[in-house]
What does this fold into?
Amino acid sequence: MAIKAAIAGNAYATLDGTSMAAPHVTGALALLHQKRPRAGVDQLVDLLRRTGKPITYTSAGAEVTTPRINVYAALHSR
It folds into this structure.
Protein backbone atom coordinates (compact mmCIF):
# COMPACT_ATOMS: atom_id res chain seq x y z
CA MET A 1 0.00 0.00 0.00
CA ALA A 2 1.36 3.39 -0.91
CA ILE A 3 1.39 6.11 1.75
CA LYS A 4 2.29 9.69 0.95
CA ALA A 5 5.05 10.84 3.29
CA ALA A 6 7.10 13.98 3.83
CA ILE A 7 10.73 13.60 2.83
CA ALA A 8 13.85 15.76 3.01
CA GLY A 9 13.93 18.82 0.79
CA ASN A 10 10.39 20.00 1.59
CA ALA A 11 8.90 17.33 -0.67
CA TYR A 12 6.64 14.29 -0.59
CA ALA A 13 7.08 10.72 -1.81
CA THR A 14 4.97 7.59 -1.94
CA LEU A 15 6.40 4.95 0.40
CA ASP A 16 5.28 1.57 1.72
CA GLY A 17 6.31 -1.15 4.14
CA THR A 18 6.17 -1.71 7.87
CA SER A 19 7.87 1.57 8.68
CA MET A 20 4.91 3.36 7.11
CA ALA A 21 2.23 1.07 8.59
CA ALA A 22 3.53 0.98 12.17
CA PRO A 23 2.45 4.54 13.11
CA HIS A 24 -1.08 3.86 11.81
CA VAL A 25 -1.42 0.63 13.76
CA THR A 26 0.07 2.23 16.87
CA GLY A 27 -2.46 5.07 16.66
CA ALA A 28 -5.30 2.59 16.20
CA LEU A 29 -4.16 0.62 19.25
CA ALA A 30 -3.94 3.84 21.29
CA LEU A 31 -7.53 4.72 20.39
CA LEU A 32 -8.74 1.22 21.27
CA HIS A 33 -6.84 1.32 24.56
CA GLN A 34 -8.64 4.56 25.46
CA LYS A 35 -12.00 2.85 24.90
CA ARG A 36 -11.00 -0.50 26.46
CA PRO A 37 -8.35 0.28 29.09
CA ARG A 38 -8.59 -3.17 30.71
CA ALA A 39 -7.96 -5.06 27.47
CA GLY A 40 -4.48 -6.43 26.89
CA VAL A 41 -2.42 -5.74 23.79
CA ASP A 42 -3.15 -9.21 22.38
CA GLN A 43 -6.89 -8.61 22.76
CA LEU A 44 -6.67 -5.24 21.02
CA VAL A 45 -4.58 -6.64 18.16
CA ASP A 46 -7.10 -9.48 17.76
CA LEU A 47 -9.90 -6.91 17.64
CA LEU A 48 -8.11 -5.04 14.83
CA ARG A 49 -7.67 -8.32 12.94
CA ARG A 50 -11.31 -9.36 13.35
CA THR A 51 -12.74 -6.01 12.27
CA GLY A 52 -10.29 -5.36 9.42
CA LYS A 53 -10.97 -5.92 5.74
CA PRO A 54 -8.89 -8.77 4.27
CA ILE A 55 -6.51 -7.69 1.50
CA THR A 56 -4.26 -9.96 -0.53
CA TYR A 57 -0.93 -8.99 -2.05
CA THR A 58 2.17 -10.72 -3.40
CA SER A 59 5.34 -10.66 -1.32
CA ALA A 60 8.50 -12.57 -2.24
CA GLY A 61 6.52 -14.54 -4.83
CA ALA A 62 3.84 -15.70 -2.39
CA GLU A 63 0.30 -14.43 -1.88
CA VAL A 64 -0.23 -12.96 1.59
CA THR A 65 -3.61 -12.08 3.09
CA THR A 66 -3.74 -9.60 5.95
CA PRO A 67 -6.42 -7.27 7.33
CA ARG A 68 -6.56 -3.59 6.47
CA ILE A 69 -7.45 -1.99 9.80
CA ASN A 70 -10.84 -0.36 10.25
CA VAL A 71 -10.58 1.70 13.43
CA TYR A 72 -14.24 2.77 13.30
CA ALA A 73 -15.40 -0.86 13.16
CA ALA A 74 -13.01 -1.84 15.95
CA LEU A 75 -14.15 1.01 18.20
CA HIS A 76 -17.82 0.09 17.69
CA SER A 77 -17.37 -3.67 17.95
CA ARG A 78 -18.74 -5.49 20.97
Remarks:
- The first helix runs from residue 18 to 35.
